[in-house]
Amino acid sequence: MSNLTTFSAANLPSVQALSTALRALETDVGAAGVVIIKMDKTGHWVFGADQTEVEDDSTWAINPFSFVHGFIAWGDGEVLGEKMVSVSQPLPELDAAPPNAKKGWETQVGMSMKCISGEDKDMEVRYTTTSVGGKRSVQALAVAIATQVETDSSKPVPIVSLKKEHYAHKSYGRIYTPIFDIQSWVGMDADKTEKLEAPKEVEVEAVAETPAPATRRRRS
């Protein structure tokens, strides 16, 4: 037998326990290949590493089970730490912020959504934000879903268009904030929203984010 496979069985977990522990890595660091969507400083919705611009007339299904809250610590253009859990759970406990975090731990909220029309149909994305305007928009969307569930629980999934508004800041000029403009409501079993799942707890450490110039693929 090769020396590469002659491990001592002492103090080792069962193969089943090992499998469970290895699969837990997905919960700890998040599923691979998650596409990030955001609004950039010029007020355009963009996604992915290339910051591809969202189609103006695309519509998106919000996963009502995907709302999360927690904390994030940013360094100089990189995420030093992130602790997010479902809104059905209490906020995660915090230890000391990473030493190079510019603002320490910042409160963050977010959710997941799926494109249901246009060139990016079926793409699933994650949206998170620490900005005041962004958090208010997510809060308004969450309240709208709660109201809808109380009125008609058979259609808890909002179909939205990604819009924007802006205000003038005396120091920073025009500031854009996101709007999730609800177009309609559908059920969880609709073809547009199949395979929506509740989020898992996520804790990420030292994930680098390399900013890239926005690709203006589709500007009306």
Structure description:
- The protein is built from 2 helices and 11 strands.
- The protein has 220 residues and is of the alpha+beta class.
- It has one domain (34-208).
- Strands 1, 2, 3, 4, 5, 6, 7, 8, 9, 10 and 11 form an 11-stranded mixed beta sheet that branches.
- A hairpin with a 5-residue loop joins strand 1 and strand 2 (45-47).
- The chain is globular and about 45 Å long.
- The protein starts with 14 loop residues before the first helix and ends in a 12-residue tail after the last strand.
- The model is unreliable at 24-30 and 204-214 (pLDDT under 50).
Strand and helix layout:
Layout: H1 15-29, E1 35-39, E2 45-47, E3 52-53, E4 60-62, E5 68-74, E6 78-86, E7 105-115, E8 124-129, H2 132-151, E9 157-169, E10 173-186, E11 202-208
Give a quick rundown of the structure.
The protein has one domain. The chain is an alpha+beta fold. Strands 1, 2, 3, 4, 5, 6, 7, 8, 9, 10 and 11 form an eleven-stranded mixed beta sheet that branches.
Radius of gyration: 20 Å
Secondary-structure content class: alpha+beta
Q: How many strands, what sense, and barrel or not for the largest sheet? A: 11 strands, mixed
What is the helical fraction, as a range of percent? 10-25%
Head-to-tail CA distance between termini: 66 Å
What average pLDDT do the residues reach?
81
Number of helices: 2
Query: What is the number of beta strands?
Result: 11
The fraction of residues in strands falls at: 35-45%
- Counting structural domains, the number is 1
Shape designation: globular
Low-confidence stretches: 24-30, 204-214
**Helix-strand string:** HEEEEEEEEHEEE
